[in-house]
Amino acid sequence: MLRFTDNFFHRVEKKTNVGKATILELAKKLQEGDLKDEGTLREVIGELSKMTGNPISKEKEQKIIDAVKKDSIPKNIDKMF
User: Fold this and answer.
1) What range does the domain containing 54 cover?
2) pTM for the whole thing?
3) At what angle do helices 6-16 and 20-32 cross, to 10 degrees?
4) What is the mean pLDDT of residues 29-38?
5) Is residue 52 in a domain?
6) Which pLDDT belongs to residue 57?
7) Cα–Cα distance between 38 and 44 in angstroms, integer?
8) CA torsion, ordered 62, 66, 72, 74, to nearest 10 deg
9) Residue 3 CB-density burial (10 A; 0-12 exposed, 13-18 middle, 19+ buried)
10) In this structure, which of 10, 36, 54, 68 has its CB flanked by the most CB atoms within 10 Å?
11) How many domains does the chain have?
12) Residue 59 has pLDDT above 90, yes or no
């Protein structure tokens, strides 16, 4: 299980304007959902897009879904922020 520091949450909030509580709520939803299910992934991507105020194209959404389904997500996720 990944453990994130307050510094990580601070960096994410600074870049996205999404607070720690919202991130943790989304993480819980992800843990309870099936990340190989396209419907679940589209829902999560849509929520993230709304939370951050960054619209996402259908093409980019599909690329994200394909990457998740193929397990092509970076292992060191905190370096993304």
Assistant:
1) 27-71
2) 0.60
3) 100
4) 77
5) yes
6) 93
7) 10
8) 30
9) exposed
10) 68
11) 1
12) yes
> Mind giving me the DSSP string for 8-67?
HHHHHHHHH---HHHHHHHHHHHHHS-TT-HHHHHHHHHHHHHHHT----HHHHHHHHHH
In whole angstroms, give the CA distance from residue 19 to residue 35. Answer: 23
* 42, amino acid identity: R
Tokens (6 digits) for 79: 């370096």
Residue 53 pLDDT: 84
What percent of the chain stands above pLDDT 70?
A: 84
**15 found inside a domain:** no
> Which band of pLDDT confidence, cut at 50, 70 and 90, is reported for residue 16?
confident
- In a domain, residue 53? The reply is yes
Q: Compute the distance between CA of residue 1 and CA of residue 29 in angstroms, rounded to an integer.
A: 15
Q: Is residue 51 predicted with pLDDT exceeding 70?
A: yes
- Report d(CA 55, CA 44) in Å as an integer: 13
